[in-house]
Amino acid sequence: MNDAKTTKFSEKLHQAAAPLWQKSIHHPFITELASGKLPLATFRYYLTQDTKYLTAFEKLHEKTAALLPQSQGALLLKLANGSGEDIQRSPMLQQLKLSPAEIQQAPIAPNNYAYITHMEHQLNVDPAAAVTALLPCYWLYDEIADYWKDQTSPVPVYQAFFDSYQTVGFDTSTQQLIGLVNELAANSSETVKQQMMTAFLRSSSYELGFWQMAYTHQTWADLADN
């Protein structure tokens, strides 16, 4: 008889992504948000790109939900409609005088485009992989907020960013999506579970790239220089 605790699939995902997540938690973009040293122009760039990302992210929830059984799809739609990130961001956008027109006119940055394209691709791989690709955006932000919870940024709009991910509602959404990923993994083949792992790690890589993208104000011209 084996009394060893069964490791949840989400725990395997978390362990595999740990090196990437540690780099995100300690990325200069995040540390300078916490210290208040990040230039407002850099945060403005981030919010512009993140608003574009969140628009696509919500649509990805809807597309993925359509591939799942009704109860699982309903949960994903609930998460898409209940995260409240757009409401949380609205005061930040107003404070930085970022209008919808300015955001729409700004070109999507390369890393942002690649991240969204990666998640779109998972729709053609497997529904379980598509769900898992969404998870780092929840779980990593939850962990970043938890790590920096004891430090107050001297810049109010930066502290508002951290506070927006320290709510009970956001933590609940994160735990619900983790639960859905575990449920899907429990009913998936080893091949699909590997696809889920790959999707999770690539999303985690793009999350790290998102901070760097914002920190350097990445443009398409940057790619031509490399």
UniProtKB/TrEMBL annotation:
Matching CDD domains: TenA_C_BsTenA-like
Annotated catalysed reactions: 4-amino-5-aminomethyl-2-methylpyrimidine + H2O = 4-amino-5-hydroxymethyl-2-methylpyrimidine + NH4(+); thiamine + H2O = 5-(2-hydroxyethyl)-4-methylthiazole + 4-amino-5-hydroxymethyl-2-methylpyrimidine + H(+)
Pathway in which the depicted protein is active: Cofactor biosynthesis; thiamine diphosphate biosynthesis
EC number: 3.5.99.2
All residue ranges annotated as the Thiaminase-2/PQQC domain in the record: 14-216
Protein keywords: Thiamine biosynthesis
Gene Ontology terms, MF aspect: thiaminase activity
GO biological process: thiamine biosynthetic process
TM region(s), chain numbering: none
GO cellular component, one term: cytosol
Pfam families membership: TENA_THI-4 (PF03070)
InterPro entries per record: Haem_Oase-like_multi-hlx (IPR016084), Thiaminase-2/PQQC (IPR004305), Thiamine_Salvage_TenA (IPR050967)
Family the entry assigns: Belongs to the TenA family.
Subunit comment: Homotetramer.
Protein name, as recorded: Aminopyrimidine aminohydrolase
Species name: Limosilactobacillus allomucosae
